[in-house]
Design a protein that fits this description.
This protein is α+β, with helices and mostly antiparallel strands and 521 residues long. The chain is built from 14 helices and 21 strands. Strand 7 and strand 8 (178-182) form a beta hairpin. Helix 4 (89-100) packs across helix 9 (330-349).
């Protein structure tokens, strides 16, 4: 079955919210709630408990309801993609890996698969609406007032209210190729916001080109789109596809777009709210500080200023927002899903890698656990260096743990056992100093410059060992089959779980986090 044909039947956020409500995964909050700190505090507590998405219908200061935690669990992320389980995302990754590094088909089966993929690309081309829902209400010039929107302020020391889940849409001034990203925007006035994007992002590149040409850069912000489009915009994989085509591949059919009212840009026609504006190159204002995914407040930076001159909306729009911070957060759930998509792509880039995992508690990219089919001495170090350079998003991975293919990278007990039993620190650590690094990582001695470490927790072979290792303990297959056959006879048939609750073995992550907070207070 082709995974690209399993996308959701609709690309409308409202339809997805209705789907969640029918599954008991959406709760409506009728009581008045402030968008300043309170709304996020409620959402954060519910999300940390694995609770449902929340629709705040009575937001103080605005007539527009706010929805949060839409992608707050792995199940909801999978459902947004039209899948039952997040594991199914690896099938999508297989297809994207083929797009990234196509190979001539070896037989009729591979020829058929390649033909099917090309047909999926054709079906994924965007379609267009002439009477889009996002243009049901139009506000121009003096009527533009960001104060009418329920912008949230998530953390006490945040510099202002923000948009966090808006698609920031720009176009290359020369090639006219669009870029769709998700960047934080801070409200500066009733019609201006600063956009916080890294210099390597597509929008920042477009602004540099506009500056070189002496032009303003057109920018549209689309708020309240189907989560699959958010997934497409958040997937930074190095293939030459527009985010619209990528979203079409995710959903199995083309994204429905429409043209902005005042800009030469295309937007999802079902978006709840669209802001249209321009950036004048060189016009900047202070942005931040804000609570970030590292669990700390970031710094103050001078960021490009967007001047909005038009707002279009659906009738009775819904404002979609999220917030950053220590996991679990929605961004961590997205990262876990993207981890599944990356896996086949990574295998194609580094063939010896069997599986890899980016633990949520490590901020979804700071620590990578990779398993390899080890064939020669020194292979773990080679795999580590290949991982760091395989995809741009792994540039800021601080720690890599390499284990044997027999280790389940998603089981912390097995990984800790491998580190404890297979590693000699004076032999098995690879430390690289002073590499370009994440400016938000305050653990680095110099901002933007830091070290990396790889830990070889694989079984040592060949020249890696100077003495004989003992044989690993394991029950014989014969005795395991005998126990299986007697399980019911022994009265143990009610014990069936192969993945027991980790808290049974002392893994209570929230306890350790709370103890650190008490120590630091």
């Amino acid at each position: 079955m082709n995974p690209f044909n399993k996308g959701p039947g609709s690309q409308d956020m409202r339809d997805f919210l209705s789907f969640l409500e029918k599954k008991g995964q959406l709760k409506r909050i009728h009581e008045p709630v402030s968008p300043d700190l309170e709304l996020t505090a409620i959402s954060d507590r519910v999300l940390s408990m694995g609770g449902p998405a929340l629709l705040f219908e009575n937001v103080i200061g605005s007539s527009i309801p706010v929805v949060t935690n839409v992608l707050g669990t792995i199940d909801r992320v999978a459902w947004s993609m039209g899948l039952e389980k997040v594991e199914e995302l690896e099938a999508i990754g297989e297809k994207l890996a083929l797009l990234q590094q196509p190979k001539p088909p070896r037989d009729a089966k591979e020829t058929f698969e390649l033909g099917g993929l090309l047909w999926n690309l054709i079906k994924a081309r965007p379609d267009y609406d002439l009477t889009p829902a996002c243009h049901q209400t139009i506000l121009n010039n003096e009527a533009v007032d960001l104060d009418q929107l329920p912008l949230t302020r998530p953390w006490p020391n945040d510099a202002g209210s923000v948009i966090t889940f808006g698609l920031v849409i720009t176009k290359d001034p020369e090639t006219k190729v669009p870029n769709v990203g998700i960047y934080r925007l801070q409200k500066q006035s009733c019609n201006t916001m600063t956009v916080h994007w890294l210099s390597v992002r597509g929008g920042a590149g477009h602004l540099r080109k506009a500056a070189a040409l002496g032009q303003k850069l057109e920018v549209a912000i689309a708020i309240g789109v189907h989560p699959l489009i958010i997934m497409a915009a958040a997937t930074p994989i190095p293939i030459q596809l527009s985010e619209w085509l990528f979203a079409g591949l995710y959903s199995g059919k083309g994204v429905r777009l429409t043209r902005c009212k005042t800009l030469d840009l295309e937007i999802p026609s079902s978006a709840e709210i669209v802001l249209e504006g321009t950036i004048t190159p060189g016009e900047e204002m202070s942005d931040g500080p804000f609570g970030d995914h590292m669990g700390f407040y970031g710094g103050i930076e001078s960021s490009p200023l967007i001047r909005f001159h038009c707002i279009t909306k659906r009738k009775n729009p819904i404002f979609h927002t999220t917030f950053s911070g220590k996991p679990p957060k929605e961004e961590a759930m997205l990262a876990i899903a993207l981890n599944r998509i990356y896996t086949p792509i990574l295998r194609r880039q580094v063939p010896e890698i069997v599986d890899f995992f980016l633990p949520m508690e490590a901020l979804s990219y700071k620590l990578a656990i990779i398993s390899i089919d080890k064939a020669y001495p020194g292979q773990a170090k080679r795999a580590s260096m290949a991982f760091w350079s395989a995809l741009p998003q792994f540039t800021y991975t601080k720690f890599i743990v390499v284990v044997d293919s027999s280790i389940n990278v998603r089981d912390p007990r097995q990984v800790v056992w491998a580190i404890s039993s297979m590693v000699d620190p004076q032999r098995d650590l690879l430390i690289i100093e002073n590499t370009p690094f994440d400016s938000l990582d305050f653990a680095s001695e110099k901002i933007g410059l830091g070290g990396r470490m790889a830990i070889d927790a694989t079984t040592k072979i060949g020249a890696e060992i100077n003495h004989q290792w003992g044989e690993q303990l394991q029950h014989s297959k014969e005795i395991q089959k005998r126990v299986d056959s007697r399980w019911k006879e022994l009265g143990l048939s009610d014990i069936t779980s192969n993945n027991p609750d980790a808290t049974l073995f002392g893994y209570v992550m929230d306890y350790f986090i709370s103890r650190k907070e008490i120590t630091n207070s």
